[in-house]
Design a protein that fits this description.
By secondary structure, the chain is α/β, with parallel strands linked by helices. Helices cover about 50% and strands about 10% of the residues. The protein has helices spanning about 20-30, 55-60, 80-95, 105-115, 125-145, 150-155, 160-175, 200-215, 220-230, 245-255, 255-280, 290-300; strands spanning about 10, 35, 65, 100-105, 195, 285-290. The chain has a 6-stranded parallel beta sheet, with helices on both faces.
Length: about 300
């Protein structure tokens, strides 16, 4: 395999596990590492506190990439993120530095670290298909079976979202959805070494609550008010960000603030569990229970032939 991609390693784990602090400390200590933030929400400008973006002081110490790419009123797809991540990595490698991918958004990580081929979107076709779901889901599944039997065999006949997506791509691209490969269902060879930072859920739950209440003290509510009142408001995707979605209920609907805060903390805890489950399905991730062990392994990878992207 060629080493043309450049030096890279990835640090993954659930929200509030401490991976961002570890990544910053390692990059600041080494001086030859730049951080690529693999996160679905830090791409939005103005969504700073509740996404735990690095501070101005931290950005002065370490070079960060893939932050503040678009306005919060815009949609930003995983395919767009993949393109931006490729460009950012090439920029880092052109300066002879190493890339440290850091994040908890599993789908975005797979798209970047495994260089997945992502089918395009066809909104008009999708809208037509979605209009048929309620009345004729069975007919849509039969259509998929005729167009792409393999894709149909990989999903339940009642899974409307997956059926619509497979038909959308098959009809829009003029090629079978299954021709894009097994995608998230399979794990190929290691392209970029992934180091996982594990955290005990009891400690994680406490950390999540403390962190969110700290954010409230840092004026997260004011940030949400400003975002909601800005021209264009927040896109459908941006509105789903944990913490923002709950506080928007207070801002826009008058829901009790403390109830919204408690809901945000609860949802963050659920997110952490989903993220950990997602990452634990990947047999290639090397797990560590403490930041010191994870940091040593990151250094080891970057100082060895294992640190090269293997395309």
């Amino acid at each position: 395999m060629s080493n043309s991609g450049g030096l890279a390693v990835a640090l993954v784990g659930p929200t509030a596990s401490g991976k961002s602090a570890l990544a910053h400390a390692l990059a600041a200590r080494r001086g030859d590492v730049e951080v690529l933030c693999v996160d679905a929400m830090t791409v939005y400008r103005g969504m700073d506190i509740g996404t735990a973006k690095p501070s101005r002081a931290e950005r002065a110490e370490v070079d960060y990439h893939l932050l503040d790419l678009v306005e919060p009123s815009e949609e930003f797809t995983v395919a767009q993120f993949q393109v931006a991540a490729r460009a950012a990595a090439q920029e880092v490698w052109s300066s002879s530095d190493a890339v440290l991918y850091v994040g908890g958004t599993g789908l975005y990580g797979r798209a970047v670290l495994d260089n997945l081929e992502i089918p395009a979107q066809y909104p008009e076709i999708r809208a037509e298909l979605e209009a048929l779901v309620e009345g004729d889901l069975g007919g849509l599944y039969e259509q998929l079976e005729a167009l792409d039997p393999l894709a149909a065999s990989r999903m339940e006949s009642t899974n409307a979202r997956r059926i619509v997506r497979a038909l959308e791509v098959s009809l829009g691209a003029g090629r079978r959805f299954s021709s894009y490969g097994e995608g998230l269902l399979s794990y190929g060879p290691v392209r970029v070494v992934q180091v996982g930072l594990r955290a005990d859920f009891d400690r994680l739950d406490e950390r999540i609550e403390r962190r969110f209440r700290d954010w409230m003290d840092e004026d997260l509510l004011d940030e949400v008010v400003a975002l909601a009142s800005a021209p264009g408001g927040l896109s459908r995707t941006a509105r789903q960000a944990v913490g923002y979605r709950e506080l928007l209920r207070h801002v826009e609907e008058g829901a009790d603030l403390e109830s919204c805060v408690v809901d945000a903390i609860t949802r963050s805890r659920r997110l952490a569990r989903r993220q950990r489950s997602w990452f634990q399905r990947d047999p290639r991730i090397e797990w560590f229970d403490d930041t010191n062990g994870a940091s040593r392994r990151l250094d080891e990878v970057l100082n060895s032939p294992d640190g090269f992207v293997r395309d």
